[in-house]
């Protein structure tokens, strides 16, 4: 890895006074390499990938900025997203993680509820659901075309899109179009208040430092706040203190269970797209249960 090229690019963008020290490999998920960089301007966190992944970092930066703009819950400050000839990289403020206490989880829930309740500007076309640009869920493209109807948006740009990526890999009793139609019909029942979503809110994307919670690795869009809460319960769940605090502010809707199943189907389908294996079976069974329960 050519750190000299990265340092040169950073100095060009941030000033020649920047001096980088040793790079220490840290955990950064299974998509990017991640490093803690010592510098004369403090400790930095840098994600690295092939130069072809540059737009992933641009869109991640946009999501972090969108969350920070609500002034509700912290994110790492974005320093720069850039690339060399061979590498794309994202540089963020570094935060030393700590193990959270119940009070930390309570604060995270309160701040997330505030983010979900913050007034959100319509996307550039004036429609309430979607986002100002397409982005990514993991490394999978995530379409965000602005749409006036939440049920239409989620049925087609979330479930329909993922089904198109898995074409021929799932053995389902009805067509993709019929699945989308059924999901759209189910989601039409309840009116949805547009909220800024983190979009990929599993345990690994909520961290804590000595000052409290931070959201990282967003896949932001405007949608139903329950889509974020559904995902918190998908891979092991958050502690009870989190849900108690969140529900004290935002009550659970009547159709909670079925809506959460639909929202989590999106992430199961995406895991099937990314990793295959048992996720294909899990996604297939989830679709079949939704067909049965929603009919």
Automatic annotation (TrEMBL):
InterPro entries: Fructo-/Ketosamine-3-kinase (IPR016477), Kinase-like_dom_sf (IPR011009). Pfam families: Fructosamin_kin. Keywords: Kinase, Transferase. The keyword Zinc does not apply. Gene3D superfamilies: 3.90.1200.10, Phosphorylase Kinase, domain 1 (3.30.200.20). GO terms for molecular function: kinase activity. Belongs to the fructosamine kinase family. This is Fructosamine kinase family protein.
